[in-house]
Amino acid sequence: MVDNWEIFIDFVLIAGMSLLGLIIGFLLKSNVPFSKKLLVVFFINAFSFLLYYYAYLHKIRLLGGIAILLGNGVGFLLGPMILYQLKSLVLPKQQIVYSLCKSLIPFFIVWFLISIPLSVTLVTGYFPLFHQYYLKYEIYLNQLENIFFITYLILTFKFLKRIQNVYKENYSALDKNNLNWYRHLIIGFIIIVIVDTGCTIYELFYPIIPWNIGNVVAFTIVGMYVYLGYKGIFQARILMPEFLLDKITQETILSKDPEVPLKTIEDQNPTTKSTIRQLNNYSQDQINHLNSLLKKLLEEEKLYRNEALNLTELADHMGISNKKLSELLNQHLNTNFYTLINDYRVEEVKKRLATNETEQFTILSIAYDCGFQSKTSFNRIFKQKTGISPSEYLKTL
Fold it and tell me: Nearest 5°: phi and psi at 32?
């Protein structure tokens, strides 16, 4: 029975390493975007853990030394990689490579000063004194690594919110590129770090936990890699107009209310040097004319019923640039594109429900005709605007 279990573990480890090796080779050789090539780092790290576990089971010191060389100091590597993996989905490669390299400096310091000596010690038996000191202070290095990791996870979470808020300035639907899976990934890693930190602190004052928490955490991280790899490979880059990319890269003050337009530090502090606004030279009459034209396009021509409508397309109908329309919405109407268009859609649905159209059509078909792309987004937005679900609203009529 024991032999069968060992054979099964060997099969899982070898199959996992083989699969990871094939994926790594495919991503390196194929002409995939930069965002997908960054996934190679996560897969190599997962491969190194499986390799280390295999070497540990079979007492192969050489393989163990190689695995430590590739997998030690994971938090110093994963923190920056998770942040810049997200940035690579939005920003061009040239804007993130230099910053990514700077963020990885702590990892390379750990690699040269700790990982290489540990690998040599495991393989050759040299530097036994170094190994003793490492074991003595490993717990404190682990805590420093966790602090570094969780700091970058928080930075990633803030950048994700920034993307989602800016995305609302150009699109009226978030279903395709809502990146909720990345939010789940961040939360998962934060939970893992908290559990690992808690167990480590516990072992400082109380007896060591009999089961190896390190293995549990490591296998959980490998599971998160699988999730990241699956989602990351199929996640397309998020294309935005250049002026929105500029907003993403600016330092921003994020409102707790997602309906409130994004405001930069320059908006909050007028004494700060800012870029020239697009409508600065427009008179109040011209601004009023643009407002009237926008209202006409939405109320009379009902452009919001186009489910693929975006800021640039609406700006083309108005005969102005997308930058000017964005400023008109943000600065003069105190809203954003996402909020404006969905306000009109919800009001249209409410009017049509009040005229007993549900006797001929379903609520969902009415929602689709008003511009909503999916049942999920319709229900969420309708309840957000009215406080009740569409079916509950229908009952009130």
Answer: -100, 160
Q: Spell out the domains of the chain, with CATH numbers in brackets.
A: 2-243 (1.20.1070), 279-335 (no CATH), 337-397 (1.10.10.60)
Gyration radius of the chain's alpha carbons? 27
Q: How far is CA 352 from CA 295, 364, 370, in A?
A: 20, 12, 10
Four-CA torsion 301, 302, 308, 309, nearest 10 degrees = 70
Is pLDDT above 50 for 34? Answer: yes
Q: What is the pLDDT of residue 176?
A: 65
Each as own residue / partner, the long-range contacts of residues 232-236 (CB below 8 Å, 24 or more positions apart, any chain) are 232/35, 232/36, 232/39, 232/85, 233/36, 233/39, 235/35, 235/89, 235/179, 235/181, 236/177
User: What are the structure tokens assigned to 50, written together?
Assistant: 């499986």
User: Which residues on adjacent β-strands are paired with residue 252?
Assistant: 264
At 325-352, the pLDDT tens digits run: 989 998 899 999 999 999 999 999 999 9
Of residues 110 and 210, the one with the higher pLDDT is 110
pTM of the model: 0.79
Question: What's the average model confidence in pLDDT over 118-133?
Answer: 86
Query: What pLDDT score was predicted for residue 6?
Result: 77
- Give the separation between CA 389 and CA 383, rounded to whole angstroms: 5
Is residue 49 within 8 A of residue 223, CB to CB? The reply is no
In this predicted structure, the answer to whether residue 247 has a pLDDT above a threshold of 80 is no
8-state DSSP, 95: G
Tokens of 25: 């080779």
Report the DSSP beta bridge partners of residue 253.
Answer: 263
Of 228, 168, 221, 226, the C-alpha closest to 192 is 221
